[in-house]
Amino acid sequence: MSAVRRPAAPVAGEHILDLDDLGVEFTTETGTVRAVRGVSLHVAPGETLALVGESGSGKSTVALAAMGLLSGNARATGRAVVDGTDIVGADEERLSGLRGSTVSMVFQEPATALDPLSRVGKQIAEVIRNHRRISAADAAERAVELLRRVGIPEPEQRARSYPFQLSGGQRQRVVIAMAIANEPALLIADEPTTALDVTVQAEILDLLRRLAAETGTGVLLVTHNMGVVADFADRVAVMYQGALVETGSVEDVLLRPSHDYTKRLLSAVPRLSVAEADGPGERPAPEPDAAAAGEPAVELKDVSVVFGRGKHAVHALKGVSFAVHPGETLGLVGESGSGKSTASRVALGLIGPTAGSVTLFGADLAATRARARRALRAGIGVVLQDPVASLDPRMTVGECVAEPLRVHRRRLSRREREALVADVLDRVRLPREMARRAPRELSGGQRQRVSLARALVLEPRLLVADEPTSALDVSVQEAVLEVIRELQEELGFACLFVSHDLAVVQQFARRVVVMRAGRAEEQGLTSATLLHPETDYTRRLLAAVPVPDPVVQRGRRAERLATLAAGRTEEQG
Amino acid sequence: MSTYSFLIRRVLQALAVVLLVTVVVFCLLHALPGGPARGILGPQATASQIAAFNHEQGLDKPLPVQYLYFLNQLVHGDLGMSYTLNEPVSQLITERLPKTLLLTVLSAVIGLLFAVPLGVWQAVRRNKPADYVITTLSFIAYSTPVYFLGLILVLVFSQVLPWFPAQAPQGNSVADILAQPQGLVLPVVAGAATMVAVFSRYMRSATLENLTEDYVRTARAGGTRPRAILTRHVFRNSLTPVVAMLGYYVPVLFGGALVVEQLFNYPGMGLLFWTAAQSSDYPVLLGCVLVISIATVTGTLLADILQRVIDPRVKAGRS
User: Fold this and answer.
1) What CATH code would you report for A17-267?
2) What is the pLDDT of residues B235-285, one digit of tens each?
3) A115 and chain B: CB distance < 8 Å anywhere?
4) Domain A295-306+315-546 in this protein, CATH class
5) Please, what is the Cα angle at A559 between A556 and A561, to 5 degrees?
6) Chain A from 389 to 428: CB within 8 A of any B CB
7) How far apart are CA A549 and CA A562, in angstroms?
8) In angstroms, rounded to a whole number, what is the distance separating the alpha carbons of residues A529 and A534?
9) Topology of B95-280 in CATH?
10) Does A113 contact B318 at a Cβ distance shorter than 8 Å?
């Protein structure tokens, strides 16, 4: 661990990126918004600077300003010097010459970052030929080499693929191949792993680290994920409301933060507790399960779900069984495509199982008639991931919350309905006056509380929450989870909590089901399963989660890579 | 899905649609008051004359029987005899169809040649004076009825400025008509005007939408120049929705031909349809509608195939 760092005095030529009093203003219909104010920072060759902050802090705007990629209504002030050229005020021709050659960028959303109608090899070759006078055939050959370098199997064939034929992780590798095509001196990565599963995230971070080390590239990493920061960064700059509040080495900022905001931010980050030494032998004896004794709110028994028929059939669930009991929270975790959302929809009665049975509040769903099933469903509340999309923009908050009452309690008078809405808004700790506002006037966290109020207004016996906080900042996430926890204690509902975030599930759920490729890979008490997993898969999943402590994370990374390498030699031997 | 099985499926679907159209049209035509006998024999015809005519033409049989009879003949290429022109309908159509195709295809191609670049150009110059002027002109062209536009064209470019003839070229073959190209100018312009207005709008909005896509930012981040981004990436991506619209536009083109041919006295299917409609010439009407529906179905089929060529995702069954 090197405690001694170069002093921060900017020396022109030594830094590959130098931001000096950078400001960015957006002209909008409602006036001018100062998104970034007086940001000064630098990136030296070969080092990684992480720019962190919550949504709206201006960190992505800084990254785009350094690329000269700000939108048309933005105006930059100050200086953003990349390898001797000030990006602020440079003309498009000058910028085109720099982009993709001296400085390049990896974006958040690999699903949309590539032209859907061009073959990926061609898109990589284009970046090469933008800056070098080589023939199309040579560029195509280089593109194949780059695909190999970023770890795409069978690069010759893959170069001829269209983006939709690749997985999310592979697409991100293609975007990285484009970014490193001309060996840039500076790589700007804007949330490069946020849209990816944790195991893929770990691979992409390994790849970026290796490539940066090989070529001495400086990296500006924009992220909200403190685990990623701990895993990757040498230095950290923290942004809050458009300004830098703290800059320092990764150990200083993450372990000994000096600014109040940084402290608050870090304390809100859910931390995955990890066992000191892994071993199934240390697994604690299962504690007597009091809650499990009663009748479960919902129980899936050996449920299989098949979509489609014949050779196109997709086996979304294969013999999954679990139960959620009143008053307890069951976490459903797994990577994308593991079937966790399908399982939650089966529990809701939205998807009928192809085989197996679903029992809701003691009644077999397959044996109940439509009317009875409707009555059963009134006992379930649902909170979904996207707080923007799940509220009707034409309704007021009050109408959104009252809607389940209109469906299931038709006899209520308007006054009674309003009283219930006001009551439930109190419960989720939103002011009653908010009932008259429109959802778009609310922040993401407030909207998610409105969703929660709507889910709770019928006093459900089961709450199904599908990634309820993944679109929210950590501080907001903490508040929303706290509200759910308190209400559960008060009302005693069962909660099925679907999440990809193992740290959140570890803190929030009493029991956990780990899903993989449509199967329940393993389940048990969270305290046991996520600390001393029984299966290799869960172990790998846990190992891939970066923890927001650079020292611990360094050890975990080494351990993970060693395990991977051992696995590889075993396969070969 | 392989291209082969895709084609078979789509052609079968197309045939089913055409068959359905014949049923619908057949029913509609027979629901009209008066019936064909009144149309042929005139208002003075007696009830016994009408009954005799109906018996002679098989019009007294039950409708399903008449329909099956019609279908059987159709399979043999026989669309019946025109009541008023005393010629086989199939012959009338084979004579007129190529001329209408010439007019519509020419209008469509010329219309697109203007519309597509215009739309892209507008998108690039969004909210600048040029964009506003063209947008205004588009809306005027779009909201002007074709017959009115045709009259204005004749008035300005034939009467006031004697540049082009007001009458379309006459003749029995396409070659005859192509021999007098100056006569085609005004009908083609009248037919293409709406096309330019509509498709420049489609192209403008498709291009604008694509210009904000993430892949444009990726290309810029790779140092691709704005012009190359437009020609290599945005253009192709914007074209896919426009191509899909093109298939649905075929019936509109034929509808336009109806008016344009009438206005310029152009001897095509539109004129034939018009005169047949006025004299309740059922066999001709049915034949025309059938041809137009086949053309429409073929148009959408071609658009689907073209989309598969442009967009690999369509072929793979996702989009």
Assistant:
1) 3.40.50.300
2) 999 998 888 888 888 888 888 888 888 888 888 888 898 888 888 787 788
3) yes
4) alpha beta
5) 110
6) none
7) 20
8) 7
9) MetI-like fold (1.10.3720)
10) no
